[in-house]
Design a protein that fits this description.
The protein has 846 residues and is α+β, with helices and mostly antiparallel strands.
Length: 846
């Protein structure tokens, strides 16, 4: 029998209808205005910022290469200052590239109509599929006198260059691109649909196996659906690296089956588990949900998660490759996993190294994405990284609810704070710091399981044993994803254990229960060690093990420790003031309410921050910790604390049983905060961290078609870690992955953790960079350096060897143009490729 209709149900229904009608009307108005094309959308790719100009005389052409970042390109604007005697016409042409002779669009503007300096627009019919495509736009002055076009610094725009009479200059034009709003909207809607597909792939891969496991070991009523989904994600993410390690241990390399088998088995297990389910059951469950107190929190959570994932996918839709240095090694390792069907022993053909000892969690997730979608390692690294970025926020939900003693709004508050209001982890996209993110995505689930294993005394023995085994699996998988994660877990567990023990003692807890809980935790750790055991063999004697051993034996100078703590001066950038204020309110309120859980989270941060100082007493593993790694993960404890505060507000709102208004205020507060944060995060990508640009992508394609397979490229780089290692400084670093040609700069993970085929190779890599810092490449000594390293080509990317903090360019292309030892064989935009002339070095192949 159905429940009689309550007046509040009618009120809610009417309110939702009014809200739906108003939202629909607002969206309709917005779409009509956009689709009517009342106001073209202008994207300021290279706005006027300097006073530099370039003169254009009669019959001279001046142009700009660029990439259209939206669909519906319908115009281009150049900053033009006409001379007092200039007269005639400016002819505009749009082409697919500098080597094309076919005009896609033309336009003209009378010079006589230009009365003042400013942007001059050249309109043409919209190019519907312009998004992501390369173009070359140029103007030709037909008339008398002279006019000037705005000129900007070369580094001001990444995806093109200024051209004079179709010859590239080391500069950019002052230009803006105009788009038809109609096709911009259509393109964004298409991107949204593709985003839904990507999220579907993520759930299939990174949630189904864990969900199937929970469906069998955890009764349906014990977890609400957001908790179950988040725990399923953490379990799945922990499972996959363990799968690759153990299949390699027994000599199996399953290839794409590594992805498909867990998904298929998981779906089959779910189908069998819910074999008695009927559509009527779903309708009844939906009806109960609609009438429950969960409807508002759940709807709010769905909207918030849509914004979290939507923003993360939106900001990378125009990238040609993942950003900065870490991304290169991630993409390379993922490609090697796919090439070898699993764990590999050799880095060939991308680098002359052997052995794999670095954490493989994120690389496994990228490989899974490649196996299922067929995407390249570059695209898969971008999309898997951003999907993981969203999932890392989702997995905070169950732990936040646990900290807040079961309050749903706490999970939502944690997701809003970490996913949209905090710059971290969204900012990770700029660094490619996805390995740490992989561990952090699993960490909240590992902490939740540890908490459950220790505290869940009411569960039957079989369930407790299953949860212990599950906790061991998650802990092992988390460690494989990022080696520092056990320290983060222990740093949480110690203060939590102390406070929980104090609470238990105060309430007269049973000592046997306490002892049994400790035994279960020890058993969990033992299972984790057992599951991790196959990986120990590769770690023994590795550089990581040597680093740990040195840290146990040596006490660092106090100045080094002090330098580690300098990063905390910028904590308000990583945790903005509004979030810090919420944290302080939470701390005070929790003290007033005598809630120990938030206090344990605060202690967690203090313990983490103090681990680096543990080097002074040779604390095991302390030398592996970095305060920077701690500061950039503060979104986790901050999210938990803000979530606790949201849970308190939710409890207050739910106390008004006769009115929905407090709950609606809380919903509005969450959604407004989410929208504000989403708007801010659309600007999260920092272009200074982009290494691979569109001109580099075109150059890589040219290398594949025109450069011999046995070529070896000299590329830009700089030394790090006090001169002990080196990294690349522009897209030349990526040549092996793009073209399967060798270069002089291997992935950083290979230098630090793998064994070179030639034991002196890593030292030579660093020595070459050090030598080029002193010896000009355009000198006899520079040529000799190349000959000694069997270099056949020199690559200068669009970034000109300047992508990195405090980096100095090793060689300038202009210096090589007049040297007879170098032959310029490719030059587009700011990308140069030189060939070392045959015969310069003894034995150099022609």
């Amino acid at each position: 029998m159905s429940r009689p209709t309550h007046p509040s149900d009618r009120y809610l229904k009417n309110l939702l209808e009014v809200f739906t009608i108003r939202v629909r009307s607002a969206l309709t108005i917005i779409l009509v205005l956009l689709l009517a094309g009342c106001q073209p959308f202008i994207d300021a790719d290279q706005p006027r910022a300097s006073e530099s100009m370039v003169a254009v005389g009669p019959a001279e052409a001046l142009g700009q290469t660029f990439v259209a970042r939206h669909a519906g390109l319908s115009g281009a604007e150049f900053w033009i200052e006409p001379g007092s005697e200039a007269t005639g016409t400016l002819r505009f042409s749009l082409r697919t590239g500098t080597d094309s002779l076919v005009d896609l669009a033309t336009a003209s503007v009378s010079v006589d109509s230009l009365t003042a300096p400013g942007f001059v627009r050249f309109d043409f019919d919209p190019v519907r599929d312009s998004h992501g495509r390369d173009y070359y736009a140029f103007i030709v002055f037909e008339g008398g006198g002279e006019l000037q076009v705005g000129r900007e610094p070369a580094e001001g725009y990444l995806d093109g260059a200024l051209y004079s009479d179709h010859v590239s200059l080391d500069a950019q034009a002052s230009f803006r691109l105009v788009y038809s709003p109609t096709w911009v909207v259509v393109d964004l809607l298409g991107s949204a649909l593709r985003g839904v597909g990507l999220i579907g792939v993520a759930l299939l891969l990174y949630a189904v196996p864990g969900w199937a496991l929970l469906a069998w070991v955890c009764p349906q009523g014990r977890l609400i659906w957001p908790e179950r989904l988040a725990l399923a994600v953490g379990i799945s993410l922990a499972f996959y690296p363990m799968l690759l390690v153990w299949t390699d241990f027994v000599g199996l390399h399953l290839g794409a089956l590594n992805a498909w088998l867990p998904v298929v088995i998981g779906l089959a297990a779910l189908a069998w588990r819910y074999r008695t389910w009927r559509p009527s059951d779903g309708r009844e469950a939906l009806r109960r949900w609609w009438r429950s107190d969960a409807v508002w929190p759940d709807v709010t959570l769905l909207v918030v998660l849509s914004l979290v994932f939507g923003v993360r996918l939106l900001v990378v839709r125009t990238l040609d490759a993942p950003m900065w240095g870490d991304s290169y090694q991630h993409a390379t390792i993922a490609q090697l996993l796919v090439d070898n069907g699993g764990v590999f022993d050799s880095w060939e053909p991308y680098a002359p190294y052997g052995g794999l000892t670095v954490h493989i969690g994120f690389h496994t997730f990228v490989a899974l994405f490649m196996w299922v979608t067929g995407a390249s390692s570059l695209s898969a690294t971008i999309w898997a990284g951003q999907l993981l970025n969203g999932l890392a926020v989702l997995t905070l939900y169950p732990l936040a609810v646990r900290v807040a003693r079961g309050r749903r709004w706490a999970g939502i508050g944690a997701v809003v704070a970490a996913g949209l209001l905090s710059p971290m982890p969204a900012y990770y996209v700029n660094w490619g710091r996805y390995a740490q993110l992989a561990g952090q995505a699993i960490l909240p689930v590992a902490l939740w399981l540890l908490w459950t294993v220790f505290e869940d005394v009411k569960a039957n023995a079989a369930r407790r044993e299953v949860m212990v085994a599950l906790g061991g699996l998650v802990l092992a998988g988390m460690t494989l994803s990022y080696y520092r994660m056990p320290f983060y877990l222990v740093a949480f567990a110690v203060p939590w254990f102390v406070l929980w023990s104090w609470k238990s003692w105060r309430s007269g807890g049973d000592g046997r229960v306490y002892g049994n809980a400790l035994l279960r935790v020890v058993l969990l750790g033992g299972i984790s060690l057992l599951l991790f055991a196959p990986w120990f063999g590769g770690l023994a004697g590795s550089s990581l093990a040597n680093s740990l051993e040195k840290g146990l034996m040596a006490t660092p100078a106090l100045d080094i420790i002090k330098a580690e703590y300098q990063v905390w001066k910028d904590v308000l950038w990583y945790v903005p003031m509004q979030l810090m204020a919420c944290v302080l309110i939470t701390f005070v309120w929790s003290v007033v309410r005598k809630c120990w859980e938030p206090f344990s989270v605060v202690l967690w941060v203090l313990v983490l921050g103090g681990l680096v100082a543990g080097r002074l007493i040779n604390l095991p593993g302390a030398n592996l910790m970095q305060n920077f790694s701690v500061v950039i993960m503060l979104y986790i404890p901050v999210g938990l604390l803000v979530g606790w505060l949201a849970g308190q507000l939710g409890e207050i709102a739910s106390g008004y049983t006769r009115s929905f208004f407090p709950t609606l205020v809380l919903v509005a507060l969450m959604l407004l905060a989410s929208l504000w944060g989403a708007g801010s995060q659309t600007r999260i990508v920092d272009t200074k961290h982009i290494m691979v640009t569109r001109p580099d992508v075109r150059a890589m394609a040219w290398i594949r078609e025109n450069v011999p397979q046995d070529a070896r490229f000299l590329v830009e780089g700089f030394r790090i870690y006090g001169g002990r290692s080196a990294v690349g400084a522009d897209a030349g670093w990526w040549i092996p992955l793009f073209t399967q040609r060798a270069n002089t700069m291997p992935p950083q993970y290979a230098i630090l953790t793998a064994v070179p085929n030639d034991l002196e190779y890593s030292r030579r890599v660093v020595d070459l960079v050090a030598a080029l810092e002193k010896v000009p490449l355009a000198s006899d000594g520079g040529v000799r350096l190349l000959c000694d390293e069997d270099v056949t080509h020199v690559y200068v990317g669009q970034g000109q060897g300047l992508v990195g903090g405090g980096v100095r360019q090793l060689f300038k292309p202009q210096d090589l143009l007049d040297r007879p030892e170098y032959s310029l064989i490719y030059h587009q935009d700011r990308v140069y490729i030189f060939e070392v002339v045959a015969g310069v070095c003894p034995g150099l192949k022609p």
